[in-house]
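Title: Comparing notes on inverse folding

I've been comparing how different people in this forum approach sequence design from structure. To keep things fair, I'm posting one structure and asking everyone to reply with a full sequence. Here's the target:
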C-alpha cells in the first residue's frame, strides 16, 4: 500500500545545478518576481497551481520575446492582448523557439486548459495522471524525453516540466546573461544547449 504524503509537507525536488541558480535569479529580476519564486514553484503544493503558474510565466516570456523581436513600441499593447495560441504561432514563425519548443508549449497549454477552466479541479488535478493519459509522442513533447513507468511518478514529471520551462524562459528573457553563466560567449548556442539538456538529449540524438 502506497504511503500517502502529508498534505502539509511540501514535495522537495533536487535543486538545479549551481550554475543555474544565478540564471534563475536573473529571470526573477527580469520578470519582477519575488526572490525565490521559481524554486518555490518547483515545490508548489498543488499540481493545479503549478501548471497554471508555469503557463503564465511562459506566456509572459513569449510575449516579451515577441515585443523585443518586433521592436515596435506602438504594437506592444496589441501584442499583449493576443491569445496564447496566436502568440505561440508568431513566436514559432519568428524563430524565437528552440527545437521542440512549439510542441512543449502546446502540451503546457493542454495541461493548463485541463486544470484552469473549473476551479473544482484544484483539489483533484494531477500532473502525473495527466501525463499518463498522453500518447507517447505527447509525453516526449511535454518532458523532452522518455520516462519509464517507474520514474514517471513522485514528481519526476513536474521536475522535468519545470526544468524545460526554465530553459525556454531563459532563452526568451535572459539569453545574454545565460551565456555568461554557462561560460559560452555564443549565447544562442549556449542556452539552446541548456534546452537540449532539459530534453535529455545528447548531440548524437539531435
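Reply #1:
Here's my take.
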Amino acid at each position: 500500500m502506497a504511503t500517502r504524503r502529508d498534505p502539509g509537507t511540501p514535495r522537495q525536488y533536487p535543486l538545479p545545478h549551481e550554475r543555474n541558480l544565478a540564471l534563475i535569479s536573473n529571470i526573477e529580476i527580469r520578470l519582477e518576481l519575488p526572490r525565490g519564486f521559481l524554486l518555490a514553484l518547483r515545490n508548489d503544493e498543488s499540481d493545479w497551481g503549478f501548471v497554471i503558474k508555469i503557463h503564465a510565466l511562459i506566456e509572459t516570456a513569449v510575449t516579451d520575446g515577441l515585443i523585443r523581436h518586433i521592436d515596435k513600441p506602438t504594437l506592444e499593447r496589441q501584442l499583449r492582448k493576443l491569445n496564447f495560441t496566436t502568440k505561440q504561432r508568431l513566436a514559432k514563425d519568428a524563430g524565437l523557439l528552440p527545437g521542440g519548443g512549439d510542441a512543449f508549449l502546446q502540451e503546457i497549454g493542454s495541461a493548463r486548459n485541463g486544470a484552469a477552466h473549473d476551479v473544482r479541479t484544484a483539489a483533484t488535478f494531477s500532473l502525473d495522471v495527466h501525463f499518463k493519459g498522453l500518447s507517447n509522442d505527447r509525453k516526449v513533447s511535454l518532458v523532452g524525453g522518455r520516462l519509464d513507468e517507474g520514474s514517471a511518478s513522485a514528481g519526476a514529471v513536474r521536475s522535468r516540466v519545470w526544468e524545460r520551462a526554465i530553459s525556454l524562459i531563459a532563452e526568451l528573457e535572459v539569453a545574454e546573461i545565460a551565456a555568461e553563466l554557462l561560460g559560452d560567449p555564443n549565447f544562442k548556442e549556449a542556452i539552446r544547449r541548456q534546452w537540449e539538456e532539459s530534453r535529455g538529449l545528447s548531440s548524437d540524438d539531435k
